[in-house]
Amino acid sequence: xxxxxxxxxxxxxxxxxxxxxxxxxxxxxxxxxxxxxxxxxxxxxxxxxxxxxxxxxxxxxxxxxxxxxxxxxxxxxxxxxxxxxxxxxxxxxxxxxxxxxxxxxxxxxxxxxxxxxxxxxxxxxxxxxxxxxxxxxxxxxxxxxxxxxxxxxxxxxxxxxxxxxxxxxxxxxxxxxxxxxxxxxxxxxxxxxxxxxxxxxxxxxxxxxxxxxxxxxxxxxxxxxxxxxxxxxxxxxxxxxxxxxxxxxxxxxx
Length: 254
Prior knowledge:
Layout: E1 17-23, H1 26-32, E2 38-39, E3 43-53, E4 56-69, E5 72-82, H2 85-95, E6 99-101, E7 103-109, E8 112-119, E9 122-134, E10 142-153, E11 162-189, H3 197-200, E12 205-226, H4 229-232, E13 246-247, E14 250-251
């Protein structure tokens, strides 16, 4: 593939992704990853981004944890808060992508980087920092596997009954890193009943914060096989379209 400019001056399609990684407690990861997927090292990846979707910019935030499916290492996506309603429901219905509506504020001004995500009136992720310089690029192409789950519970809500039982969706993406910058900043997780990342995945140690610009090369979304439907049942009721444990689609009582 011939290299092409990521965007023209001022075009949002060329915005880098803010990627923050931190270590958390293993117990929280174990509660969130459904049986069949094997939890990996308890390192959480928080991404804040702006990408062109359906002909307009989509601002979003994602929370992912390492998980292994059939011997393949990847990241289990717990939720993608986005500011574009059109992409929320069709993404979940077709591919199981865990999207929900969310207000995102994200910008770089000079060397200052700031981001926050707010859902149902609760700000649950906040970051501020300063770019300190360029970082080393990954050598060659990078292939990442991201795991989503697609399923549909039975009409009428019968216990442990499905119209479509749970399946893992493998999102295999190939990209090259074009530019990476380190950011000296602090990620804050704020308590929210609708996005309980601070409760399940508290920060033990922040590992890195970077602005990453990718050159996408290929993306394939495929059915990667079934999960045990009975073992998955406790994970079936979620908060909205996310993968956070829910009760009738809302937060679970404390």
